[in-house]
Specification:
2 domains; 10 strands; 6-stranded mixed sheet; mainly beta; Elongation Factor Tu (Ef-tu), domain 3; 3 helices; 40% strand; elongated
């Protein structure tokens, strides 16, 4: 599985996780065993004892309940907390964070605006204030970035 956490140690025997897939009902499941493999993780779930049963979970996302998330240090934020935040520049409302694109290097905020999609690098030089409690990201865009996205 691809790893989207900085805390792979949370995947330990006995840990409870959620399995989620678009259009399907979320389900809780317990980890029997987990080990790193080729930059990702292999998870063995309790009660999933055959290749056939495991293949039925292909495409499901493993999620940790929000209340079980580890506290982040300093200015770090969970990317999922950015979704729905209003993006502003010098008091002007630009749009809403719709998703985060993970690419090599700096993640991109995908912002839905009245003019269409605006991609903003999630870098401290650009995203000057990130306040997920208020649901606001204050940015200072480099010259030409808006036009680059059109």
């Amino acid at each position: 599985m691809d790893l989207f956490t900085d805390f792979p140690e949370r995947f330990e025997a006995g840990a409870s996780v959620s399995l989620w897939r678009e259009g399907k009902q979320r389900r809780q499941i317990e980890l029997e065993h987990a080990w790193p493999h080729k930059g990702g993780m292999v998870l063995k779930f309790c009660g999933v004892d055959s290749i056939n049963e495991a293949e039925q979970l292909k495409g499901w996302e493993v999620q940790v309940p929000t209340e079980s998330r580890l506290t982040l240090e300093g200015q770090e934020v969970y990317h999922s907390d950015l979704i729905g935040c209003r993006v502003r520049e010098h008091g002007e409302e630009l749009g809403i964070v719709a998703s985060i694109e993970q690419r090599t290097g700096t993640p991109l905020l995908v912002v839905s605006t009245e003019q269409g999609e605006l991609l903003i690098p999630f870098a401290t030089e650009i995203c000057r204030v990130v306040d997920t409690a208020r649901g606001v990201v204050e940015v200072e865009l480099p010259e030409g970035l808006r036009e680059l996205n059109r």
